[in-house]
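Example record for the data management plan.
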Amino acid sequence: MLLSGGLDSATTLAIARADGFRCHALSFDYGQRHRLELDAARRVAQALGAAEHRVLPMPVGELGHSALTDRSIPVPESTGSGIPATYVPARNTVLLGCALGYAEVIGAGDIYLGVNAIDYSGYPDCRPEFIAAFEKLANLATKAAVEGRPMRIHAPLIELNKAEIIRRGIALGVDFALTLSCYQPDDSGRACGRCDSCRLRRAGFEQAGVADPTRYR
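Corresponding structural encoding:
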């Protein structure tokens, strides 16, 4: 289970648990400017009863060219056309590759992640085509699959909008006050309320008719 500490991944962890899985959560320190999300991931993993939670270093951010890892690039506060500056090159490919390797190590055949193709920022590695292609790769590249134990990649939020995700999470007992979605929180974890991620999150709570528990600056 890929766990960022945000709203979507927390809901996905709750779904995986409801599906009957014993969940091993992986979070990654990839040099993101919003590293406070790792504290949120720890809180979520504990609250939702993950069997294990590991935070792994992953220097993909050192490649640069993303507002999430390069402080010389400002975090955009409005949505424009094209792929936004917050796209981290190949991030989901690399993180899923690590999850795939760890799944083999512990004998797991199912990997969950909280990507979404509706309320998202235009990232190419959040599309259904990418998930399908990675599952095909996983079943070509692993000893487990070659020996008859196929890998399945689950993206249960892929066709849900943010309001639907929030309602699903609440039904499964997710405490969204534990999560952090902001790309530029302050040192105490308060969200900026202006970045693309904050805007999507706030609109989701409004559309769901649910009180927003986010602490804003």
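Summary line stored alongside the record: The chain has a mean pLDDT of 93.
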